[in-house]
Specification:
Length: about 220
């Protein structure tokens, strides 16, 4: 699939509790998905050219951002990291997979050199009030032949992609638990007048979890 814009086709995917929580508290890792839905998520990863998370997810979870639970190729890891705070020993910083770290123009050059020394590629884009200019980033990724992008979070990244309307498809894993914690989507419509809605929506059960998916339209 390909979007009509000069940018990758974006699939937003994350796991949440029944009350919309993706974590119990800020900066804390929380596993919500059961084994079956984890395997499905890895199948999705294998279908995309790249996978993106924010620096908060890297610092909290130290994810590998690869395909381990299903057959298929690893996507290229992308990290949204305005100030280049990513640790040089983060597991997703992988020279063999061409990890890209997206930073604003004013991020420390010393941090860039340290990350480049362990094989990361630094992509500098203009800054916005929300952090990174997502449109500029996506246009550069398209020029790098990244045609499909999977966005996994965390909450700020999820919200910013939805607010910018750069999501083409959404896949949410619903875990049968109540957390009362950090919501996945925050202040989405502060200055908007249309709600995002799924069309051709599907729901299916995998293990204990439910998977809700569909294409995004704005009404």
């Amino acid at each position: 699939m390909a979007s009509i814009d000069p940018r990758p086709f974006v699939t937003l995917t994350y796991a949440q509790s029944l009350d919309g929580s993706i974590a119990a508290r800020p900066g804390a890792s929380l596993v919500l998905s059961c084994a079956e839905s984890k395997r499905f998520t890895h199948q999705l990863r294998a279908q995309n050219d790249a996978i993106l998370v924010g620096i908060g997810t890297v610092l909290a979870d130290d994810p590998q951002l690869n395909v381990r639970l299903a057959p298929g190729a690893n996507p290229r890891p992308l990290i949204l990291d305005s100030d280049l705070r990513c640790p040089i020993n983060a597991r997703c910083v992988d020279a063999g997979r061409g990890t890209i770290i997206v930073a604003r123009a004013s991020a420390p050059m010393a941090n860039q050199r340290a990350l480049e020394n362990v094989g990361a590629q630094i992509l500098r884009v203009p800054a916005t009030d929300d952090g990174i200019d997502l449109r500029a980033m996506l246009e550069q990724l398209a020029r790098a032949q990244i045609k499909t992008l999977m966005v996994e979070g965390g909450a700020r990244v999820i919200t910013n992609f939805l607010r910018a309307r750069f999501v083409d498809r959404i896949v949410i894993t619903l875990a049968p638990v109540l957390i009362g914690g950090i919501r996945g989507v925050n202040a989405l419509l502060a200055d908007a007048d249309r709600f995002p809605r799924l069309r051709r929506a599907e729901m299916r059960q995998l293990g204990e979890d439910w998977i809700v998916s569909g294409e995004i339209e704005w009404i």
